[in-house]
Amino acid sequence: MISLPSYLNFDNSKYYWKKEIDYRLNPFLYKVGKGEQGVLICEPYKSEILPFWKFKTPETAKQSCTKVFDLFLKFLENEDFVGADMARKFLQMGFTRSRRYFNYKGGKKYNSQDNYKLMEKGTGDKQKAVSAQYFFDKWKEAENNEKYKKLKKDWKYKYG
Questions:
Q1: pTM of the predicted protein model
Q2: In Å, what is the CA distance from 24 to each residue of 29, 81, 160?
Q3: How does 25-50 read in b/e, with b if 16+ C-beta sit within 10 Å?
Q4: Which of 17, 28, 70, 72 could be joined to 87 by an S-S link, Cβ 3.0–4.6 Å?
Q5: What's the Rg (C-alpha) of the chain?
Q6: 46 with 18: CB under 8 angstroms?
Q7: Can you tell me the distance from the alpha carbon of 121 to that of 27, in angstroms, rounded to the nearest whole number?
Q8: What are the sequence ranges of the domains in the chain?
Q9: HSE toward the beta carbon, residue 146, CA cutoff 13 A
Q10: Please, how many CA atoms are within 13 Å of residue 101, restricted to the half-sphere of its CB?
Q11: 138 backbone dihedrals φ, ψ, rounded to 5°
């Protein structure tokens, strides 16, 4: 049985994150969500973090996750939970995307021409596993940061 990607039946009207919202001016509208949800929508954070997010080679991945983690710490220093959570999401996404390119040639998981049949696993770029590890380590360091954990708990209590 073929499992279709979840984005095929996506209902934008039920999605918490909206492109037209400035989440720095309206942080109370931000939802933590699951995993990387909202990472490529929440402005102005997306535009501030995205230019530094790269994983093409292990060297660029290491520089990238270090810079994104530095932004994470800066957001925490400024008591900006939304910014910190967005930086954490970019670290997580660096891991998941690197793994996708490690597992599948060109990062292409599904053959959309063939009813979204999964492509052959194990055909990707082996160097992406190194990139993924760099992001994974920084992502976990961010998630385990005591100040981040407290801000997240408080945020979820206050805003859901």
A1: 0.87
A2: 10, 10, 17
A3: eebeebbbeeebebbebbbebbeebe
A4: 72
A5: 17
A6: no
A7: 40
A8: 17-108+120-159
A9: 0
A10: 20
A11: -70, -35
Q: Which residue has the tokens 């805003």?
A: 159
3-state secondary structure the chain: CCCCCHHHHCCHHHCCCCCCCECCCCHHHCCCCCCCCCCCCCECHHHHHHHHCCCCCHHHHHHHHHHHHHHHHHHHHCCCHHHHHHHHHHHHHHHHHHHHHHHCHHHCCEEHHHCCEECCCCCCCCCHHHHHHHHHHHHHHHHCCHHHHHHHHHHHHHHC
The distance from CA 88 to its chain's CA centroid, rounded to whole angstroms, is 7
Tell how far CA 76 is from the center of its chain. 17
C-alpha distances out from residue 144 to 22, 25, 66, Å:
27, 27, 16
Helix axes 128-143, 81-103, angle to 10 degrees: 150
Residue 13 pLDDT greater than 90, yes or no: no
**What confidence score (pLDDT) does residue 72 get?**
98
Query: Using omega within 30 degrees of 0 as the cis cutoff, is the peptide bond preceding 44 cis?
Result: yes
CA distance 94 to 133: 9
Both ends of the chain: CA-CA distance in Å? 36
Count of residues making up the chain: 160
- The residue written with tokens 């402005």 in the block is 43
Cα–Cα dist 146/148, whole Å: 5
